[in-house]
# Entry
Amino acid sequence: MPAIGEVLAFPAMSDGTLDPRLISDTVDRLRQRVQKRFPDSGLGKVAAQLSEIAAKASATSEWIARPITPLRILVYALIGLIVLGLGLTLWALPLPEGGLQLAEFIQVLESGINDVVLIVAAVFFLASLETRMKRNRALRSIHELRAIAHVIDMHQLTKDPEWVLARGAETGIRPVRAMTPFELSRYLDYCSEMLSITGKIAALYIQHFDDSVALQAVNEVESVTTGLSGKIWQKLMILYALHGMEQGAVPGDAVAVRPDTPDAV
# Structure
């Protein structure tokens, strides 16, 4: 099964873009690994939800970037009417006999500037309407991934490596902690992989939609997933170190709790 480095490597196409099909296949394999190792677990349900999102990621990306043709026609028609109305107004303006006095010219100029500013603002609003609607599409989809990242963090929150290796006194209200060190290492590793893939799906959403606000939202999701994954890897390092000490192994042998054999799921 692929390690986390492989998960991040092969979903890219030769042209440097993310391949939604490969991302979907990666998430589906991860879902199978989680459900085989931890059947009927909450993490398995989150993996299944992430797999469904990944399967629709290509369609979602196309939906975000797809031109809104009826809106474009309406916007072009409104802009045309505004320009036509402005032209007809200027053409129909009567010029006073004897020309404009300085005071009258200043008044006309001031009024004309105000009208031009309002017209430009209206045209800009109409021209950017499609982009703002696409941005709302992207932000809604990205918000869903941000929520999933925090759900994954909630699942790993109570997975304390010290408790697995050195159980303390029972309080009767603690969450169930019945994992072996190896099972805990796999659980935390799955969480880290899911967080990494969540960030990649967010990047896939906007790879054909160039918008600074949506890009910032994706960067925030990737920052969140990277930070949460960093906390998980701190737990893994503690687990490897403590388990190596418990087994009487040298620190370099501590990685034996995470085998790389082909059947390690």
Observations:
- Residues 69-91+101-129 form one domain.
- Residues 202 and 218 are 6 Å apart (CA to CA).
- The chain has a mean pLDDT of 77.
- The two ends are 6 Å apart (CA to CA).
